[in-house]
Amino acid sequence: MIDPTAQACAGPDDAKTVSLAFQVTDGVPPSAEAVLAALRRRVRCPDDDWKRALLEAIAAWPLATEIVDGVRLDYLIGGEAFDWRLLAARLGLALNGTIDPNSLSGWLSETDPSGGFSDVEFIRLLGAEKHRGHLSFLYGVVVERALLAAIEQEVTKRRVASGQPPTELARDEAFERLYEGTHESLWGEFLAEEKGRDRGHHGPKHEHLSLGDFDALTYWLFKRRLKQSEPARVASDTRKGINHLEHMRAANDRRLRTLMTEGSFAPGADDKRPIKMTPVRRPRGPGTDFRFRKQAHG
What we know:
Number of helices: 11
Helix content: 55-70%
Distance between the termini: 37 Å
Number of strands: 6
Shape: globular
Largest sheet: 2 strands, antiparallel
Strand content: 5-15%
Radius of gyration: 21 Å
């Protein structure tokens, strides 16, 4: 178990000792508080890689969901799909600026599914179980959302080519093509199936919906499509989603380079108020933006 009384490390050798604190002992995982305490010490270690430290902390993190600053964060969707970036954002916030906000936000907004690590290294750092969950999230949420965006784009292009103006109804037509139902009707089916986990929802426009709710709907739609479609159609649609995702990522990378050049990720260094990081899912994009804002005084 993690020793919460351990002192902050003084050098690279101590960093190796602190990293052992993330490991499970006698089959008992560390508590969330213990993981955070060890991570805070770890990122203060000279010459240590904070990205690796975050991923190792994520591998040991015991909570599937929690409420932070009044916001529910769902790291595990449908009991299967794991959003490691959302958890990394939450852990980064808890470090209170120890990691440079520009660097942290830039890393979390990168489009590489493995965070810039090789596949082998990423699996080793994240752990086999959470890596399987990451793949489920990648294909069941990220690629699925890209597929829906690709179909919606096809619908819009067809309307424009025939002399018709674009319309918001393109989304419903895309839903009909992929899932044989409108967005609103499918949302109702989803809530009906999930009512055993009652979260107090009343429809797709409810003001208290979280990122996890929209991700859960997307993952549910993904599994529904797999059950209802022929294997060849599933493979074709998956390729379409991946191809569209690559186009979206190229555009996103250009946007991120612009933001980094303009210094738009983080608040000014002379502003000493606490930083609050807010994950914002792009509704038709490949992933999540992680934005910073200063908390109000008082």
